[in-house]
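User: I'm curious whether this sequence folds into something compact or stays loose and floppy. Could you predict its structure so I can see for myself?
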Amino acid sequence: MSPFELAEPASLPEAIALLGTENARPLSGGTALMLMMKAGVLRPARLVSLRKLKLDEIRADGELRVGAMASLRALERSARVKAGWPAITRALRTLSNVRVRNVATVGGALAHADPHMDLPPLFTALGARATIAGPAGERSVPVGALYAGYLENTLARDELITHVTIPPMGRRRAAYLKCTTRSADDWPAVGIAVVIDGDDVRIVLGAATDRPTRLAAAEKILKGKLDDPRALEEAAQAAAEEAVIESDLHGSAAYKKQLVRVYLQRTLDEARRPIH
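Assistant: Here's the prediction. I'll summarize afterward.
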């Protein structure tokens, strides 16, 4: 691993200024960044630690607000999240392992832009928005708009995610299921998030594509027809065909297409299942 300078700013403006310098990278949990540095994929001259910025608050007062430095484990263990947004709690239980979840942060998991991550498709389906701070101030974007491609986000070099806001569930029902080739906490070959809101369905595909991908054709078929077996079959076929499926170490494109057909129906069933 190449030598680097570690900066620990005490304020958000200071962190943003440091990130504007040449070859600087933000450091939140570091679970992915350090692996990439050890592998020689990244060679930053400066790491800007965010640990002193106090961005780890989790607050639920109608909507859910999650600070970018909140650990995945803190989000998983939050009683308010479990009561109001149970799909998030369930998804986190098989996101990597407890040791990683104790260190990895929500902001880092989103900004890393690895298409195999579980939170981006689920947050996108839930209508979450990310608040981003930079030299010009703050801006808010849908979580799905954070992604430009494989390991490529839309953040400027001197911008940081400060928090994520997720609307209240109300009568909506949600689920996220993934298929892994080994253990349940392995990287998925396919991940599907579903949100049902009355007659409307929102479906977001992850892992099989280079970024979280809305499956609009399948959504249109299912509108008002969740109880129609033929519509479910048509939607599953449309879902497998409308997205650009990527082959990788976790499965061929043909294999993943079949997984999409199967897991869309399973995820819809999971979302409609009574919560105990």
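Summary: The CA atoms of residues 27 and 141 lie 22 Å apart. The longest strand covers residues 188-197.
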